[in-house]
Specification:
Mean pLDDT: 79
CATH class: Mainly Beta
Number of strands: 8
Helix content: 10-25%
Strand order of the largest sheet: 1-2-3-4-5-6-7-8
Largest sheet: 8 strands, antiparallel, barrel
CATH architecture: Beta Barrel
Number of helices: 1
CATH topology: Lipocalin
Structural class: alpha+beta
Radius of gyration: 24 Å
């Protein structure tokens, strides 16, 4: 009886040790190194709120939403950025400038097939 308990205990310890050695460290889904989460808010040219959401921008210049590519970005000038959204709600090109806010915030114009809009993006998580 004691021998079977020792064998069972040893099996459990060996299985737990093997599992612990093969596990990768936990990294939360919202943490991806080399990228930042940006919240966006779209307004019509009169200042009325139309839509808002979030996307992720990588240091390589990619824009993603739910791990799908939605466009690219690049720095323009000292305090600006150019975004080219190839799909989704923001599909179009945006020229944004850094504006004074509590968090890093860019605001400018988005132009697409539906017209001209004011777009504001704000750093959510870096």
């Amino acid at each position: 009886m004691l021998a079977s308990r020792i064998v069972l205990f040893t099996s459990i310890v060996l299985a737990a040790t093997a599992q612990a050695q093969t596990k990768k460290p936990y990294v939360p889904m919202d943490v991806q190194f080399g990228s930042a989460v940006w919240g966006w808010h779209l307004f019509d040219m009169k200042g009325n709120s139309l839509n808002k959401n979030r996307f992720r921008g990588t240091v390589e210049g990619k824009l993603t939403l739910n791990s799908k590519d939605i466009g690219t970005w690049k720095k323009s000038g000292k305090d600006g950025m150019t975004l080219d959204f190839t799909r989704g709600t923001l599909k179009g090109k945006a020229e944004l400038k850094l504006v004074p806010m509590q968090r890093p915030t860019y605001q400018g114009t988005l132009v697409n097939d539906d017209g001209k809009f004011t777009l504001r993006i704000e750093l959510v998580k870096d």
